[in-house]
Amino acid sequence: MKLERMRLGLRINQNNIIIFSTLLLILLLYGAGSVLYTGFFSWQVFFNLFIDNAYLIIVATGLAFVIITGGIDLSVASVVAFISVVSASLLQQGMNAYAVMAICLIIGILFGAAQGYLIQRFDLHPWIVTLAGMFLARGASYFITTQSIVIENPTYLSISKYKIHLVGSNFISVSVIIALVVVALAVYAAKYTEFGRAVFAVGGSEKSSVLMGLPVPRITVLVYTISGFCSALGGIVFTFYMLSGYNLHLMGMEMDAIAACVIGGILLTGGFGYLVGPLLGVICSGIIQTIVMFQGTLSSWWTKIAVGFLLFLFILLQRVIVIRRQRRRVINHGSTMTPPQLQPLTNAEYSKL
Amino acid sequence: MRSGDVLLKMEEVSKTFPGVKALSDVNFTLRQGEVHALMGENGAGKSTLIKVLTGVHPMDQGKVYLNGRPIVARSPLEAQHLGISTVYQEINLCTNLSVAENLYIGRLPRRRGAIDWKKMHADSEQLLRRLNLNLDVKKSLSDYSVAIQQMVAIARAVDMSSGVLILDEPTSSLDAQEVQQLFAVMRKLRDEGMGIVFVTHFLDQVYEITDRITILRNGSLVGEYETSKLSKSSLVTHMIGREWKEEDEHRKTESSYTPEVVMAAKSLTRAGSIKPVSLSVRKGEVVGLAGLLGSGRSEFANLIFGIDQADSGVMTLGAEQFQSMNPKKAIRQGIGFCPEDRKIAGIVGELTIRENIVLALQAKKGIFNYIPLKKQQEIAQRFIDLLRIKTPSMEQRIDNLSGGNQQKVILARWLATEPKLLILDEPTRGIDVGSKGEIRRLILDLAKSGLSILIISSELQEMIECADRIVVLRDRMQVGEISGGDMNEASIMKMIAEGGGTSEQYPQTGS
Hints:
Chain A: This is Sugar ABC transporter permease YjfF. Chain A is mostly helical.
């Protein structure tokens, strides 16, 4: 019985196939890197994937909630940059480090909630609202300063330098712990809270969710609030990493976050995905980046090319899954569970005419 | 409470929409342990009554009592909390979630703050067993057929209901076997003492499952009847609303068709839409498609024009055979189609009369083969004169015209493509009596000039006047054909009610 349940738990179905393909891809890429380059196969290289991308993991995880409801948040990268500028300038004025962090998080929450409210209350398209949010946050950082501000606050410096040793002399940073806690909370919330399941329901069908009595307006505002909060938290973590505030930080990172979600199996049409996905997506592109780095002669743009190619593949995979799901619904009759099958398109009929 | 006790009572319910009296003083009584059919033609007020009851629309006047206590539902959610659950034709569930989640979302069982998946799965299985369903509740809903999804929706409704269940056309996308599955569940719930309101267009289903029938017509109550004591033909008469009088009938006197077959459909089928229909139309012939709403009339027209794809069957147009059709191909093959709802599917309100007229011709020629303005004006003027479209100028926006004239513009649009076959779905709905007569005369004139016409109309008299031959559909099945001197309202209604004696030959499994 127990064995059977374990096997069932690992059963590959259409919901988790993308997660499994992403995992497989990570293993393949990591294996390829290890075979090709000496020094690639080490704990520290692996840990560095997390250290370098902690902020992206946090931002992408927050964004995933929005995407699962069928929305999008384009403002995330600008918020991260804005938070870096805000915290650097506040710290420069001598404010307490923890107070700065609290202010940053509140800014993120308010910013996200405002976007969510506009989208929900006036039935605006999330693309438009968050695009405006993106310009607003980026512009607001220019308003504070156009210069890059270096952070010299001792608390920030010590958090930034702090090494948590794991497996011998290898280490991870505080940011990695924060990122992993965020992912763990997100996974829990998605699976074990009424809110989490409602997010999936709204992504499946907003109209049905309303008719089933779910508080759809509240859920909509809440997912954008979560995304705003995660962007702010990502901003703090990014500030630990860079130790500077600059309004040109992370131009276009929102697309990296969206890409991480897609590669991690979050369907852009909403309703499907696992909250561990964005983490895997980030690690995936991180490995590609590391390989390009180890290779040495390749331009860093090759990372973008490889990620672009991957994205294309994964979107194609998502599409195939959706099409299969639709077909299966037509094929299946009653409770007999016939295995899904892709039927060849009947092009023959068309060409005949 | 015992079976037979009054569960829900609606008294003197009235509802007015701008310009329309949708319900006037309607009474409706639902008892414990009965399946109660709500019948009526389109626009009779069935759905308004349901919507008033479930709080979608507020009522202007009247009272609703549930278990003897007066209630007011201001929203569907409130109705649900009062214990009135509704399952719509369209399934309002989230197919991306698991079966269990769909049953319990919004009220998921929790243990120490976290969702108790184990309890939810156990509860779901138990709830579904009550409906004789044995499903893997962990699987996502999209893994199951529409019928099962419908059943899950019912299970959710039943679990949240305190005795009243409304099923609004739940069977319209199910096949015969699935309908039986649904009926088994309905019988079980009825025996448990639930009161079920069943809205449907299928007469056979009404006689199979219901105990009582309430008939509405034009927003008024016709009456409440015991199903076993009401014959099918009197049901149809009550729904349509008048006894047929022989002297009313003007039959078409002269036919102008030639033996040449323009279009022949052989066993066109589409699962969940229509069972095999075979039909041929000769040059200059007017063929009518009769049947109640939902009998498959429009569905069949959609198959011919290629709006829906047929699963099987062959169509012959002239000398060519087709297995699949699409509107573009249909236009090129000389078929014109005036759809049922001209406001939605016919006119382009923002364009002028001229533009609306040349639309189909332009589509036929391809968008790169632009028709010069002068030519367009010529065409438009010709049809404005020919069809006597009343308008100050051809550059008027079409939505300024009256319904009858709009309909004529759409006719003109298709006539401009010089079709061989014209399909008219409800060509005279919603237009005044004078224009109706004119359109009918036009149909006869066009047929005389050699055009073949397939006409669908709810008004039997209209078809008797225009058609050379009438094919009768019922419950998505072709049940018979009447031609020439046998065509009168009585014979058609009889066939609609009784199925012309051929219905038994059709397979009931329908998978």
